[in-house]
């Protein structure tokens, strides 16, 4: 055991941090989905996984990379702590104190659902079926097949899950018939998104949105459950590793085990080896040009075509990080590389600090008063904080579009008198009394 610890010191230390964090959250009876907890947990857990170095591309971090990664984590936590030190704990107010038209929310959500089905139609038009049920799913899900603007629609399954998911819980939505329809739609779209266009990003977002909504609107997810899932994942990984070692290096079974074990690893670890490779540019490779902070806003203006023209004229990378991928096809870098090339080293500390402070303010507002808009925006943002090791969501226009749609729907549905919500509550209470009678 001691030899294993010595062989993987970075992984061991990071897993101890994860275990200590979970214990602290459990002991203090805190919400796991608070900003600092989510950031530290996912950053440390995924880097611990990456540092197992199951692929030759995952070389040890340079000192500069550790400085950027650790400094960003410290800055984010500092932003969260600064807010906590200046604000006292609060209690959630009753949800019936807000005005919201759930019937209009349902109608607008159905309109977004219809647009999603337009995207599904685009897939079937090209592939002849849902991609998972075609004879060559890998080909139809690759970049070789262009679905045009349909992709904007069928990629929006997580938005549909968010809109119907928030309407599925009695603690927030008093209209029973809407809840009874919204919940099956949420589950159905989560499954359909995998069948229509198998994508790990879309699947994780659908599941992530649903889980976080459940945590805030139904029942807080126990840290013990999270710990059990984490242990199960580690045990499963070790089991696969042990099974792999039972076969000779030249056997077909060994190669199958190799692929089964290393592909999930590469999806996580390539974010970190690309980050180290990008920040520590070798002398024989030109470093990516400094973007002067302009590219930070590229996602906001993506549909105006201006960012594409700027990137081409200045020679900046596209969304696939062409200049910093160690292995072709494994091209993700996480948000820290995006911040580094946009704002340099100062940005790697300032941006996480500001986001940590902003997320803490939003988290506090959600605890004080759960409204559809606050809940949806917090779920939306905290998901990206958790997956920052993988995805800088603000660099993609579709996520800006989702944010605008969430804001528009929640604003339109809030422009009604408070009596609307109360009358709906009274209507349901009367119905329940009649049934009981």
UniProtKB/TrEMBL annotation:
<feature type="transmembrane region" description="Helical">
    <location>
        <begin position="181"/>
        <end position="214"/>
    </location>
</feature>
<feature type="transmembrane region" description="Helical">
    <location>
        <begin position="66"/>
        <end position="86"/>
    </location>
</feature>
<feature type="transmembrane region" description="Helical">
    <location>
        <begin position="106"/>
        <end position="135"/>
    </location>
</feature>
<feature type="transmembrane region" description="Helical">
    <location>
        <begin position="397"/>
        <end position="415"/>
    </location>
</feature>
<keyword id="KW-0472">Membrane</keyword>
<keyword id="KW-0812">Transmembrane</keyword>
<protein>
    <submittedName>
        <fullName>Oligosaccharide repeat unit polymerase</fullName>
    </submittedName>
</protein>
<feature type="transmembrane region" description="Helical">
    <location>
        <begin position="343"/>
        <end position="363"/>
    </location>
</feature>
<feature type="transmembrane region" description="Helical">
    <location>
        <begin position="221"/>
        <end position="243"/>
    </location>
</feature>
<feature type="transmembrane region" description="Helical">
    <location>
        <begin position="147"/>
        <end position="169"/>
    </location>
</feature>
<feature type="transmembrane region" description="Helical">
    <location>
        <begin position="375"/>
        <end position="391"/>
    </location>
</feature>
<feature type="transmembrane region" description="Helical">
    <location>
        <begin position="7"/>
        <end position="26"/>
    </location>
</feature>
<feature type="transmembrane region" description="Helical">
    <location>
        <begin position="32"/>
        <end position="54"/>
    </location>
</feature>
<keyword id="KW-1133">Transmembrane helix</keyword>
């Amino acid at each position: 055991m001691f030899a294993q610890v010595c062989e993987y010191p970075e992984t061991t230390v990071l897993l101890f941090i994860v275990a200590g964090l979970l214990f602290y959250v459990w002991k203090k009876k805190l919400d796991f989905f608070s900003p600092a907890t989510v950031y530290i947990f996912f950053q440390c857990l995924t880097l611990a996984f990456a540092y197992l170095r199951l692929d030759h591309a995952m070389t040890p971090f340079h000192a500069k990379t550790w400085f950027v990664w650790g400094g960003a984590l410290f800055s984010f936590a500092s932003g969260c702590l600064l807010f906590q030190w200046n604000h006292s704990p609060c209690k959630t107010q009753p949800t019936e104190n807000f005005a919201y038209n759930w019937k209009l929310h349902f109608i607008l959500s159905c309109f977004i659902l219809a647009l999603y089905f337009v995207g599904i139609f685009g897939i079937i038009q090209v592939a002849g079926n849902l991609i998972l049920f075609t004879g060559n799913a890998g080909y139809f899900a690759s970049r070789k097949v262009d679905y045009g603007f349909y992709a904007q629609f069928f990629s929006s399954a997580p938005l549909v899950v968010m809109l119907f998911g928030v309407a599925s819980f009695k603690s927030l939505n008093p209209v029973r018939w809407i809840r009874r329809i919204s919940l099956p739609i949420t589950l159905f779209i989560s499954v359909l998104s995998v069948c229509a266009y198998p994508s790990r990003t879309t699947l994780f977002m659908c599941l992530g949105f649903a889980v976080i909504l459940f945590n805030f609107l139904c029942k807080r997810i126990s840290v013990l459950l999270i710990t059990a899932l984490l242990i199960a994942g580690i045990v499963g990984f070790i089991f696969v590793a042990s099974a792999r070692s039972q076969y000779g290096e030249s056997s077909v079974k060994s190669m199958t085990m190799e692929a089964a074990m290393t592909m999930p690893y590469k999806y996580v670890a390539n974010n970190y080896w690309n980050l180290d490779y990008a920040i520590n540019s070798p002398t024989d490779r030109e470093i990516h040009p400094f973007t002067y902070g302009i590219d930070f806003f590229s996602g906001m203006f993506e549909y105006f075509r201006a960012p594409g023209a700027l990137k081409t004229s200045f020679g900046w990378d596209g969304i696939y990080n062409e200049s910093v991928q160690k292995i072709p096809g494994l091209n993700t870098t996480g948000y820290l590389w995006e911040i580094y090339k946009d704002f340099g080293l100062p940005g790697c500390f300032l941006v996480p600090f500001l986001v940590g402070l902003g997320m803490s303010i939003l988290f506090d507002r959600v605890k004080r008063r759960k409204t559809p808009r606050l809940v949806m925006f917090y779920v939306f943002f905290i998901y990206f904080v958790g997956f920052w090791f993988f995805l800088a969501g603000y660099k993609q226009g579709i996520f800006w579009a989702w944010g605008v749609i969430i804001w528009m729907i929640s604003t339109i549905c809030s422009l009604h008198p408070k009596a609307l919500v109360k009358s709906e509550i009274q209507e349901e209470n009367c119905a329940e009394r009649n049934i009981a009678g």
